[in-house]
Amino acid sequence: MSYDPTVLDATVNVLAEAAPDADQTGQFPWAGIRAVHESGLLESTVATRYGGKGAALSDAAYILAALGRGDPSVALISAMTIFTHLGQATKNHWPDDLYRHLLSEAKQRPLLLNAARVEPELGSPARGGLPATLARRTANGWSITGRKRFVTGAYGLTHFLVWAHTDETPARVGTFVVPNGLPGIQVIENWKSLGMRASGSHDVEYIDVEIPGENVLELVDPSVAQQDNRAHAAINLALTAIYLGAAEAAQEAFIRFAHERVPANLGHPIARTERFMTLSGEIDLLVAGARQIIFGALDGNHGDAEIFIRARLIAGRQIREAVQIAVRGIGNPGLNADLGLERHFRDIQSVLIHAPQEDTSISILGRAAFDKWNRAELAQTARGPAVPVLKTA
């Protein structure tokens, strides 16, 4: 374990207290982000070679599940930075001086990083395609022009990791590290989602934004620049832990209501009734089962992408259903903002919206099942027909 459970619990309490107001206003959730920063959790996955704690992906998922219980919007914004540090720990693809400079910034303020990849015309790169955003060579570095969609935490990010193609011949594709606040950056406030309102996943437009020449990662030929959904399967499963946390918060709200609600004609809490015991059991089966599925896959330490993809889909569907059961079971009070269950219900709808979406993930599993069958058929053909064994008396 690379984090202090006491510190984590205290941080979650701060997030939970600030979450209702952040949800109502839709403003950047600074109170929660500062709490995550001050706890050191934002840098939990920084590699030990940089003086960090070197948390693994499963550790990050445990942290995100806890933060999700407090405020999933804050957890999602934090996840982008946590995963970025984890990527550097495993791939070492950042220029060393640039990365160390960012870590020095993290000592003074929350360092918030997020990839800006989705575009209005392209949609999600998880479905294939290359960016229209252009990185043009200048005398001192690069000039970035383009528009990105669904940039989580846009207002509070310290750096955008912008996916773009170069104006070179032949062109290359890479990720450009763009500090927030530079001339030419405009956040377009169009995030009006049902849930995850405080995540501030607005569009961002870049018009001739000048950055240094060293602020670029992994410039490659476009032919190898497609997003690999199987390679990101474990990360996507860890992201689902955020919504597991939200479902656990919904479960807690349901249980509290069941114990505090005492109808006059009953004379005791509805938690004692068979109906609510059964509802509680159904919710527990789905939520606790999802936790087992998520962490069972992540702690298994294997490289089978299909296992992670299945776990994400099953767990995501379960926790979405669990919160629906809780809202239906309580009735009108469950839809009232005062109880908190209504907010959890809205937030949980985003659990399987993140790329790759359900249909793409299902297609990956279906293709893998077909490929497995075809390989088995080829192997059988190569061995030839089975030769019967004659038995003698």
Helix-strand sequence? HHHHHEEEEEEEEHHHHH
Number of alpha- plus pi-helical segments: 10
Q: Oligomer, anyone?
A: single chain
Helix/strand structural class: alpha+beta
Rg is: 24 Å
CATH topology of the largest domain: Butyryl-CoA Dehydrogenase, subunit A, domain 3
Alpha-carbon distance between the two ends: 65 Å
CATH C-level category of the largest domain: Mainly Alpha
Helix content: 40-55%
Q: Which runs of at least 5 residues are low in confidence (pLDDT < 50)?
A: none
InterPro entries: Acyl-CoA_DH_C (IPR013107), Acyl-CoA_Oxase/DH_mid-dom (IPR006091), Acyl-CoA_Oxase/DH_mid-dom_sf (IPR046373), AcylCo_DH-like_C (IPR036250), AcylCoA_DH/ox_N (IPR013786), AcylCoA_DH/ox_N_sf (IPR037069), AcylCoA_DH/oxidase_NM_dom_sf (IPR009100)
Keywords: Flavoprotein, Oxidoreductase
Pfam families: Acyl-CoA_dh_2 (PF08028), Acyl-CoA_dh_M (PF02770), Acyl-CoA_dh_N (PF02771)
Protein name: Acyl-CoA dehydrogenase
Description of the structure:
The structure is a single chain. By secondary structure, the chain is α+β, with helices and mostly antiparallel strands. It has 3 domains: 5-110, Acyl-CoA dehydrogenase/oxidase, N-terminal domain (Butyryl-Coa Dehydrogenase, subunit A, domain 1); 114-224, Beta Barrel (Butyryl-CoA Dehydrogenase, subunit A, domain 2); 233-375, Butyryl-CoA Dehydrogenase, subunit A, domain 3, CATH 1.20.140.10. It is built from 10 helices and 8 strands. Strands 1, 2, 3, 4, 5, 6, 7 and 8 form an 8-stranded mixed beta sheet that branches. Strand 4 (159-166) and strand 5 (173-179) form a beta hairpin. The longest helix is centred in the middle third of the chain and has 28 residues, at 233-260. It is globular and about 80 Å long. The protein starts with a helix and ends in a 10-residue tail after the last helix.
